[in-house]
């Protein structure tokens, strides 16, 4: 079976062709970083306009790079939500129209399900059930994943997502958008113990997250240093901030796996491309005798291949989209 998958939930236009037996034949991503970088965040109107320009060439490139035509495709999958509705509508409407015109089935996929299942595209796949940490620009959540179609949320952020915190701190330090990759690069040259930023544990039992206090604390520190006339030690600030985020993400993930009793831990979402998070989580999972499955960094950040694999299981479960299916901004999973 060949699946054409489309992802346009935020600021990347992506298309992929996959075979459900976990072979990615092509995965194309057209990034909008240059458009949004001057604003230090995503401008929704600019995002949807760019999706309209890019959706057709990106889908065509995905098909041609896979060496197939639309006539070879058996299923069309597209992100239905959550995300920016103007952006989602471009990809989802395109997919529904393509499916209607070519008489193919279409599935609308939840973006979170894509992140939860992206590990299934790797050679070494996690067995079910597993505990999953999903951390991106819009989400920071823990899930118990029972099977490809059944997930229970264990915790989520009460304010900012971790990726959002990375992006806001990067903006504060004048580092551009998206902030995560640049902060993690600079953090490698910094001292993670230079500043003691707060970790929000939210009580012993809680599997929820909060990053707004950390963000305020970094902003206050930067303000104080500037007022005192100091040159900002940017690598030290980046390393100390990153360490605070990583500590909380790692320890809450381990607490979640203790609660579920699962032996397998899976991660997904753009922030899980962070090398320090991957390093610390690997070490802690080994110490706790847990099996950790990490998608390659290209499958952590937004991509259409993960929408394809999630769409495949939805298709098997008989959950098809119809022409009236609408995009949604908030995930029922979250
Ligand atoms: O999953 P994703 O590509 O898009 C969604 O938000 O759905 O995640 C993007 C987020 C951004 O906030 C970006 O700053 C963050 O992931 N990110 C990182 C890294 N790479 C991307 N955060 C920390 N370290 C990274 N290396």
By oligomeric state, this entry counts as single chain
End-to-end Cα distance = 30 Å
Quick one: biggest sheet?
5 strands, mixed
Structural class: alpha/beta
Provide the CATH topology of the largest domain: Nucleotidyltransferase, domain 5
CATH architecture level-2 label of the largest domain: 2-Layer Sandwich
Order of helices and strands: EEEHHEHEHEEEHHHHEHEHH
- Which percent band covers the strand fraction? 15-25%
Number of domains: 2
Radius of gyration using CA atoms only:
20 Å
Helical amount among residues, as a percent range? 40-55%
Indicate the low-confidence ranges by residue numbers: none
> What is the count of helical runs?
11
Question: Roughly what is the average pLDDT, rounded to an integer?
Answer: 96
* Cross-sheet strand order for the largest sheet: 3-2-1-4-5
**Each distinct ligand:** 5'-O-[(R)-(carboxyoxy)(hydroxy)phosphoryl]adenosine
| Number of extended strands | 10
In the CATH scheme, the class of the largest domain would be: Alpha Beta
Shape: globular
CATH level-four homologous superfamily name of the largest domain: ATPase, nucleotide binding domain
How would you characterize this protein structure?
The chain folds into 2 domains: 3-116 and 301-316, ATPase, nucleotide binding domain (Nucleotidyltransferase, domain 5); 124-294, ATPase, nucleotide binding domain (Nucleotidyltransferase, domain 5). The model has no long low-confidence stretch (mean pLDDT 96). Helices cover 43% and strands 19% of the residues. By secondary structure, the chain is of the alpha/beta class. The longest helix is centred in the C-terminal third of the chain and has 27 residues, at 234-260. Helix 3 (85-102) links the parallel strand 4 and strand 5 (106-110). It is built from 11 helices and 10 strands. The two termini are 30 Å apart. The structure holds 5'-O-[(R)-(carboxyoxy)(hydroxy)phosphoryl]adenosine.
């Amino acid at each position: 079976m060949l699946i054409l998958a489309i992802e346009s939930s935020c600021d990347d236009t992506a298309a992929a062709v996959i075979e459900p037996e976990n072979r990615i034949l092509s995965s194309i991503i057209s990034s909008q970083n240059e458009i949004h970088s001057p604003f230090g965040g995503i401008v929704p109107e600019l995002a949807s306009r760019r999706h309209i320009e890019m959706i057709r060439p990106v889908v065509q490139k995905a098909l041609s790079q896979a060496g197939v035509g639309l006539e070879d495709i058996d299923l069309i999958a597209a992100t239905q939500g959550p995300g920016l509705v103007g952006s989602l509508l471009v990809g989802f409407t395109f997919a529904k129209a393509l499916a209607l015109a070519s008489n193919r089935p279409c599935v609308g996929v939840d973006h979170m399900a894509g992140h939860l299942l992206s590990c299934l595209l790797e050679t070494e796949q996690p067995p079910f059930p597993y505990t999953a940490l999903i951390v991106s620009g819009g989400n920071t959540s823990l899930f118990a994943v029972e099977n490809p179609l059944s997930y229970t949320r264990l915790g989520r952020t009460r304010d900012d997502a971790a990726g959002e915190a990375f992006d806001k701190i990067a903006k504060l330090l004048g580092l551009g958008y998206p902030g995560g990759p640049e902060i993690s690069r600079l953090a490698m040259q910094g001292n993670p113990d230079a500043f003691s930023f707060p970790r929000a544990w939210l009580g012993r039992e809680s599997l929820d997250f909060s990053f707004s206090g950390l963000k305020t604390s970094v902003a206050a520190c930067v303000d104080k240093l500037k007022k005192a006339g100091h040159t900002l030690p940017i690598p030290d600030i980046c390393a100390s901030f990153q360490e605070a985020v990583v500590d909380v993400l790692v320890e809450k993930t381990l607490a979640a796996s203790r609660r579920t009793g699962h032996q397998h831990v899976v991660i997904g979402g753009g922030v899980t491309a962070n090398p320090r998070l991957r390093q610390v989580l690997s070490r802690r999972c080994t110490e706790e005798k847990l099996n950790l499955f990490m998608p390659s960094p290209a499958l952590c950040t937004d991509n259409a291949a993960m929408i394809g694999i999630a769409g495949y299981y939805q298709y098997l479960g008989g959950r098809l989209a119809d022409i009236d299916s609408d995009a949604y901004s908030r995930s029922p999973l979250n």
